[in-house]
Amino acid sequence: DRSLVIAPSILSADFSRIGEEVQDVVDAGADWVHLDVMDGHFVPNITFGPPVVKALRRWTDATFDCHLMIAPADPYLAAFADAGCDIITVHAEAGPHLHRSLQTIRGLGKKAGVSLNPGTPENVIEYCLDLIDLVLVMSVNPGFGGQKFIESQVEKVRRIKAMIGDRPIDIEVDGGVSPDTVGALAKAGANAFVAGSAVFKGDGKQAYAANISAIRDA
Ligand code: DX5
Ligand code: ZN
């Protein structure tokens, strides 16, 4: 089985001291850092782009798990690769050429991810499996942290796990992940867990470490 990954989303961090927050959460035991990029078009919120990713790259060597909630994504893939993303995830709904986007990401030497909104069925990835390193199952509608977990996505994780068989693909879940929801997701086949509000609560490194441990143990 794939190794267990906790990927805190800095969407819930203090953006005025985002570098220190990244360093603190990695010191607190984060495996990856999840970077939520939003364009105000694909999702109804705006966050940050390649310059911020590049600036954060100086604070840690941890894997940068970059979740692009932007459409179109293709014109920006090279910029995110250059900025220091290790995994670049595009949404299946973000354009008509998912297969080409994944080819482009692999061509840039990065790991390629595909994300599915809660309303999108898993079969859209079937003919892309040989180009995919990670499937990101959204368990909330993307755009904001702190939303309620959508239960139906546990079954989607189970179906994706069956679909990928023994291919070396991570299954990551994003949205409303907490000690209460993580167990069922792991049982269904997910191995990587994004958490924003459940990690960045309380003040600083000690609190983050306790929050990460609680998710890991659950
Ligand atoms: C939602 C983002 C998530 C979000 C998760 O659009 O993709 O990464 O920050 O936040 P929580 O864990 O609070 O649901
Ligand atoms: Zn995300």
TrEMBL record:
Any one of the GO CC terms: cytoplasm
Coiled coil: none
Family: Belongs to the ribulose-phosphate 3-epimerase family.
GO biological process: pentose catabolic process; pentose-phosphate shunt
Keyword set, alphabetical order: Carbohydrate metabolism, Cobalt, Isomerase, Manganese, Metal-binding, Zinc
UniProt pathway annotation: Carbohydrate degradation
Binding site for substrate: 9, 67, 143-146, 174-176, 196-197
Organism (species): Notoacmeibacter marinus
Active site (record annotation): 36 (proton acceptor), 174 (proton donor)
EC annotation from Swiss-Prot or TrEMBL: 5.1.3.1
Stated role: Catalyzes the reversible epimerization of D-ribulose 5-phosphate to D-xylulose 5-phosphate.
Stored HAMAP family: RPE
Binding site for a divalent metal cation: 34, 36, 67, 174
Swiss-Prot/TrEMBL catalytic activity: D-ribulose 5-phosphate = D-xylulose 5-phosphate
Domain of life: Bacteria
UniProt-recorded name of the protein: Ribulose-phosphate 3-epimerase
Required co-factors: Mn(2+); a divalent metal cation; Fe(2+); Zn(2+)
Molecular function terms from GO: D-ribulose-phosphate 3-epimerase activity; metal ion binding
